[in-house]
Design brief:
Length: 609
């Protein structure tokens, strides 16, 4: 039974955003709250549990859709940029080439674990995908087993069993940031000191992968002049229905039917991106993918459900038939996408699934160990038969030319007064490549701060004399903490100077065949003599003949001993470098950021307490 809106797949992708509301928005909010209360009251009157669940699912989805629409419509217009969601696809001549890179670039890392009874395995994918730029092709990856060093094969199980006495392979519960990680769990034997290293170790991971590649990707470039117009390329037609300040409504039709391989697969073939007048991509704040006709259909189904007294097989069959018949009539794909900023141009890209190529592969991946720090003298090879580019590198490297005024303008100040004994003022700025090369030899200098009262007009008045223990300044973290219990008067302003740190970075471009002493390329691995190129002061980026930056797979530091100095570092790349870019910190400056902060109001502690 599934009669709810398909919101989690193609129906709704949105961010619940906080922001000011206009009077009309406030009325809509009140109306929505009333509607929600009435709906919840009507649910209480339904006795049949299956019917109640069906009404709750469908009605809840419709209310969620309405709430999302309200949030998106009322969000203040603030410009925020993002990367090109299709940059990865644009590096490969065909969608199938991207699929092959995705599959052939996959490998598995053996990770250190803090427990003697666990070994963590991390599948490493060649691409990092995040919503809305998730992997756009239908795909599935299924792990089946792990082979141990004693030839024993341990089958995959979806969750760890407390009652299973043997070795287990299951999803990792310790690493929420890498949901694809797996854990090999060894049995705990009470009274025996059995270390992980004495257990048979995992040597290969088995599984299977399936990816469906579309026939092609085609992009339409649209502006306000295209509103109401239909643009066509072969079997694909795109209509720009509306183009608002920060949203676009687009409809897609494909003259050819879906390929049989994806006829039953939820698809999102339409990718809408926007640029502002600077030419940069705007980030998305959300999207609504339900047409008015679809919403009306589901509202009709909800009304039909609410008239029933009990859930029956006949009712379920009728709802399913109605839904299939309605969806068969929906030959067009609609989306309304909201952006964070004013739109100048649109790039509407279509994945054409009128034909498709299904790639299936059985995986038997060797498990590799690359500790971040190792005492091994031998450089392990890590050459993968794929080329992957790093589209974030050019953006990240803009921080190499960060100036003093840019740094000051990027500072944001936040306050916390929830705890009067530890009120805080925090100075922060977006982390950049410049921060990465600051090192650790900071000389923050003086960080003066004075607290002031306010006069009757709310202007800055007299300074408050305070004992030294009334406040603390942490210049390296950019935090001022103050204890209102020790203030004789209510502080209204804080005035002072907070140090910021700015590296001077020198950049050079080197031919891979003419590297200086201390730098050597061994295949796709760059070996760096850390005595000549200390890690705190140097960074390295690689390009191939295309002129694009190669993505770094991982890096390893080889030490003389567990306690000794680092000897050399190794950087592994997806592809063969032909040029290197070096970035060296040549100087470190302290920049004083002068501030006057009006303090958030808080209740002064009672002097008698």
């Amino acid at each position: 039974m599934d009669v709810r809106l398909p919101l989690t797949s193609a129906g709704l992708c949105f961010a619940l955003l906080l922001g000011g509301c206009s009077p009309s928005d406030e009325k809509r909010q009140v109306s929505l709250e009333e509607k929600t209360a009435q709906f919840e009251k009507s649910l209480d009157a339904i006795a049949d549990p299956k019917l109640k669940d069906a009404v709750a699912e469908l009605g809840g989805s419709l209310l969620l859709l309405e709430r999302a629409q309200l949030k998106l419509d009322s969000k203040p217009l603030q410009t925020e940029y993002s990367e090109d969601a299709l940059a990865v696809l644009k590096h490969y001549p065909t969608p199938q080439a991207l699929v092959d890179t995705y599959i052939n670039g996959l490998f598995v890392l053996h990770k250190d674990s803090s427990s003697d009874y666990l070994t963590d395995l991390q599948p490493v994918f060649p691409f990092n995908f995040s919503i809305p730029a998730a992997f756009l092709f239908p795909h599935g990856l299924e792990w089946q087993s792990v082979t141990l060093s004693n030839k024993r094969v341990i089958p995959f199980q979806p969750e760890w069993s407390e009652t299973d006495p043997g070795i287990q392979l299951s999803p990792s519960s310790s690493n929420l940031t890498n949901p694809d990680d797996l854990t090999v769990t060894y049995p705990f034997i009470d009274g025996l000191d059995v270390e992980n290293k004495n257990q048979p170790q995992p040597v290969s991971l088995q599984g299977k992968v399936e990816v469906v590649a579309p026939r092609r990707l085609y992009s339409f470039d649209l502006t306000k002049k295209d509103v109401g117009q239909t643009r066509t390329n072969d079997n694909l037609s795109v209509t720009l229905l509306k183009l608002g300040t920060n949203y676009a409504e687009v409809e897609l039709s494909n003259a050819l039917p879906l390929a049989p391989e994806v006829s039953e697969t939820p698809l999102n073939p339409l990718i809408v991106q926007a640029r502002d007048s600077t030419g940069q991509f705007l980030s998305r704040s959300g999207s609504i993918n339900e047409t008015a006709a679809q919403i009306a259909f589901y509202q009709k189904q909800l009304a039909q459900l609410q008239q029933q007294k009990a859930w029956t097989e006949t009712l379920e069959k009728q709802l399913d038939e109605d839904q299939r018949a309605f969806e068969k009539q929906q030959t067009r794909h609609y989306t309304k996408v909201y952006f964070n900023g004013p739109i100048e141009t649109l790039e509407v890209s279509v994945l054409d699934f009128s034909s498709a190529t299904v790639t299936r592969k059985d995986l038997n991946l060797p498990i590799r160990r690359f500790d971040h720090d190792t005492t091994e003298k031998t450089i392990q090879p890590l050459s993968l038969p794929v080329v992957v580019y790093d589209d974030q590198a050019p953006i990240w490297l803009k921080g190499a030319t960060l100036g003093e005024e840019q740094l000051k303008k990027s500072v944001s100040i936040t306050q916390s007064v929830d705890d009067p004994s530890a009120a805080r003022i925090e100075f922060d700025h977006p982390r950049s490549f410049n921060d990465e090369l600051l090192g650790s030899s900071f000389s923050p200098g003086e960080s003066p701060v004075t607290f002031f009262t306010a006069d009757d007009n709310g202007k800055r008045d007299e300074p408050i004399e305070l004992p030294a223990e009334a406040y603390q300044i942490d210049p390296l973290r950019g935090v001022i903490t103050y204890d209102l219990n020790l203030f004789p008067e209510t502080p209204v302003f804080a005035v002072g100077s907070m140090p910021l740190f700015l590296a001077t970075i020198e950049q050079k471009s080197l031919d891979a065949n003419q590297l200086p002493k201390g730098l050597e390329l061994k295949g796709n691995a760059l070996v760096v003599d850390l005595k000549l190129f200390p890690a705190q002061e140097w960074r390295f980026f690689a390009k191939d003949d295309s002129g694009n930056y190669l993505k770094e797979i991982l890096s390893v530091t080889h030490d003389a001993s567990a306690e000794g100095p680092a000897l050399f570092g190794v950087h592994y790349f997806y592809g063969q470098p032909t040029r290197l870019e070096t970035y060296q910190r040549t100087d470190l400056a302290t920049v004083q950021y002068g501030f006057e902060v009006k303090l958030d109001k808080t209740e002064m502690p009672d002097a008698d307490q």
